[in-house]
């Protein structure tokens, strides 16, 4: 059964600047420093339609070969990015990022992650909550909230 994570992180800053950072694959790699290493990671900005095949090592010993990421949609005006991901253990890992102004000096970054990993979906979505929370702590989020739902 598929599960979803909805993670909301609040920041001080500018939504357009933060969205530009979200399009830089190197920024995500930097936010994961300390828990993940990406082999074959691209440099620079992601573009709609690109597909990546990465080997990811988590915590120095959990290696996933052939993690595939397809950038399905980038809407600059709405500050939304959608990706479709999968690997040998995860049938579907759909990720939508929305970065919106929140008040006069704030930004609300929302990650919605839908995961289908069969019987492992419950654990996979909680792992995603940990990983995305780590990224936002590295980016210095002011507040992080997670919700898990059955879909």
Describe the structure.
The protein has 151 residues and is α+β, with helices and mostly antiparallel strands. The protein has 3 helices and 8 strands; from the N terminus they run E-H-H-E-E-E-E-E-E-H-E. It has helices spanning 15-22, 25-31, 121-138; strands at residues 3-12, 36-39, 51-58, 62-75, 80-87, 90-101, 106-116, 143-150. Strand 3 and strand 4 form a beta hairpin. The chain is globular and about 45 Å long. The model has no long low-confidence stretch (mean pLDDT 96).
Secondary-structure blueprint:
Layout: E1 3-12, H1 15-22, H2 25-31, E2 36-39, E3 51-58, E4 62-75, E5 80-87, E6 90-101, E7 106-116, H3 121-138, E8 143-150
Antiparallel strand pairs: 1-7, 1-8, 2-3, 3-4, 4-5, 5-6, 6-7
Labels describing this entry:
alpha+beta
